[in-house]
Design a protein that fits this description.
The structure holds 2 protein chains of 2 kinds. Chain A has 10 helices and no strands. Chain A is mainly alpha-helical. In chain B, strands 3-5-6-7-9-12-13-14 form an 8-stranded antiparallel beta barrel. About 42% of the residues of chain B have low confidence. The chains are: A mainly alpha, B alpha+beta. Chains A and B meet through helix 2, helix 3, helix 4, helix 5 and helix 7 of A and helix 1, helix 2, strand 6, helix 8 and helix 9 of B.
Chain lengths: 185, 450
């Protein structure tokens, strides 16, 4: 856990303090990037972008909130920026996944982190984006709509579709160990 | 939020995967280069700000000197032509005129008296009152202290008439302005009464034009920017195989003010402030992937074989899978123009070719822009999170200012100009700072302040 003195030093441009913050948060930040990215290389680029943003804007952190929470939001924002234009995503109508009958669905939260990552990785970009933002990063639909320039209802429907698709993956039990390895290695 | 979601979120809060080591070195490198770039730009900004302030102060100082006559520091020339004999004296008025015992002052007095006797000779009689006023005016330190050349030939009435005509034809402000062409009286403050006594023809002629020492100009204009960005990429995501982006210039409007000074040598300098708004059209075209969409359709069929309509929809989507997005980008900026010109005078016109610098500061942008590098993943969200990010550019400017004189103090100006980029810097905004040549046309209204 990074204490306030280190944050203060980082705000003054102290390189050692910046490195301490990086070492403390890099692992968690990399998971965020892996969740959003399609490929590992993209996740590394996102991580780089996100940390540059964090250290460039670290003076804006006013110690009122949680520092890690602040860094998480900056990192998520960097990931979204990296993914590109959202209008196009918004224009694409995803194929419907209505009336899915999933018998004895596995509860996703009971899977390991690696398995969940592998499942999320399989989602189409639009689903993945909304699912990550809403479920794992704590954005509400209004915030997602504002960030992605879409309507709240679109955000809701994307989330529902993402959940259904994840359930369908689980019902087919198609978590592939190779996919997990591809992400992590 | 569902209980399941909370659990899921909790799992990922503490979950971490160590990134490759080289990521830190890349970050460190980028932070260092950013700091260097920022330092460089900060230096440019400082230099530009100081240059602008010096330019404005120079203009204010020159203007103040000419309007108020207080604390003048200009030197003036006095030239007396008396047959083959010519005397040229220079003195700093503020320091030396007030010292009646100084050598310069005594010469000045002598010169004025010589003129006085000259006028007496031409008229055949002495007008003591006028002559007193002339001498008083000549040595007065509250008079206008523009360069003054006393050009006077005691022996020639013809010369006097020529000078009178010059005075009238020069169309100068008869109240205060003494320019080289009209300073035959050897003084710095000529009233209309004085002028009428010495040159009666003045009273019947209308003085129509001012040669203003400094001016204020309000202008508006449009620019054409020869700019078109194209970016192409393939395999953007599961739904696209190809993606083209173009960004074209649409329009640019601007308006502002300039303050300028005309020097006696016909050179002039002007500085000011203007606001501009540029608009670009961003157009993104996405081609849907038939193959990947078909996969999704099969997947759907597998999960829900009773719903063939879903499959049909997916195929239909593929057939019409070309999507267009159009966004109008808007960029707002201020510029600090500084220019130096040389004036050619015609009866009703002033032609002023000029060169200068135009430094622009980004105020605000909105919209999205294409990336020149051609990677769709690097498409920039122009100021999505911070609309006021640093942006600066500096252009060399050249053009011709054409002024049509409406009356003694007003003129309409038309100014075609070209701006060639020198320096540009931005953190995330491309259009303002792309190094593109700009062609502008400005229409202005110039008001001479005297």
């Amino acid at each position: 856990m990074v204490d306030n003195n280190i944050i203060l030093l980082a705000q003054q441009g102290n390189r050692k303090a910046i490195k301490v913050i990086y070492d403390d948060f890099a692992g968690k930040a990399f998971v965020i990037c892996l969740r959003y990215a399609k490929r590992r290389e993209d996740a590394e680029d996102m991580l780089q972008e996100g940390f540059v943003k964090i250290f460039q804007n670290i003076k804006q952190f006013d110690f009122k909130g949680n520092f890690e929470g602040w860094m998480r939001r900056v990192m998520v924002h960097a990931c979204i920026r990296f993914l590109g234009k959202i209008e196009i995503y918004n224009d694409i109508e995803q194929p419907e996944f209505t009336n899915l009958k999933t018998n004895t669905p596995t509860i996703i939260s009971e899977l390991s982190e690696m398995e969940i990552l592998a499942l999320i990785e399989k989602l189409p970009n639009g689903y993945k984006l909304v699912f990550n933002m809403y479920v794992l990063d704590g954005y509400d639909h209004a915030e997602i709509a504002a960030k992605l320039s879409i309507t709240e209802s679109t955000s809701r429907s994307q989330l529902v579709k993402a959940r259904r698709m994840l359930q369908s993956f689980l019902s087919k039990n198609n978590i592939e160990p190779q996919t997990v390895l591809k992400i992590v290695e | 939020m569902r209980e399941q979601d909370r659990k899921l979120k909790g799992k990922f809060q503490q979950f971490s995967i160590v990134p490759p080591e080289d990521v830190w070195y890349k970050i460190e490198q980028r932070l260092s280069s950013k700091q260097r770039g920022l330092f460089f730009i900060q230096e440019i900004q400082k230099i530009n700000f100081i240059a602008s302030m010096v330019g404005l102060l120079l203009i204010m100082w020159l203007s103040y000197d000419r309007i108020s006559g207080e604390q003048p520091s200009n030197s003036y020339n006095m030239e007396i032509t008396n047959g083959a004999e010519s005397v040229n004296h220079k003195a700093n008025k503020s320091e030396e005129i007030q010292d009646a015992n100084s050598p310069v002052e005594s010469i000045f007095r002598k010169d004025a008296k010589e003129q006085l006797s000259g006028i007496t000779d031409w008229n055949g009689s002495t007008n003591t009152k006028i002559n007193d006023r002339i001498v008083k005016s000549a040595i007065s330190d509250d008079a206008d202290t523009e360069n003054s050349i006393v050009s006077f030939d005691k022996n020639g009435m013809e010369d006097l008439k020529i000078n009178e005509n010059e005075f009238v034809n020069s169309k100068e402000n008869y109240n205060n302005i003494i320019t080289p062409e009209v300073s035959i009286l050897g003084m710095h403050n000529v009233s209309i009464q004085d002028a009428q006594v010495v040159f009666p023809s003045i009273s019947s002629k209308r003085i129509t034009k001012l040669k203003n020492q400094y001016y204020l100009e309000v202008f508006t204009g449009a620019e054409y920017i020869s700019r078109k960005l194209e970016a192409k990429s393939s395999e953007y995501n599961d739904f696209a195989v190809n993606r083209n982006e173009t960004e074209k210039f649409v329009s640019s409007i601007q308006g502002g003010v300039l303050i300028g000074v005309n020097f006696p040598s016909k050179w002039n300098i002007a500085a000011g402030l203007n606001y501009s708004n540029e608009t670009y059209l961003f157009n993104a075209k996405l081609n849907a992937s038939r193959w990947k969409t078909a996969l999704i359709a099969v997947d759907t069929l597998f999960v829900n074989p009773q719903n063939p309509e879903i499959v049909y929809k997916s195929i239909q989507y593929t057939e019409t899978g070309v999507l267009n997005t159009k966004v109008y980008n808007s960029l707002h900026s201020i510029q600090l123009p500084v220019k130096v010109g040389y004036t050619f005078s015609l009866p009703k016109f002033r032609i002023n070719p000029f060169v200068g610098l135009n430094t622009g500061y980004l105020l605000y942008t909105r919209g999205q822009v294409a990336n020149t590098k051609g990677s769709s993943q690097n498409i920039q969200y122009a100021h999505e999170d911070n609309p006021y990010k640093l942006g600066i550019n500096m252009n060399a400017t050249t053009g011709i200012s054409l002024a049509y004189l409406l009356n003694s103090s007003m003129a309409i100006t038309l100014e075609p100009q070209v701006q060639i980029p020198i320096i540009s810097y931005t953190e995330s905004t491309y259009p303002l700072l792309e190094k593109q040549t700009r062609y502008g046309l400005r229409l202005g209204l110039r008001y001479g302040l005297r």
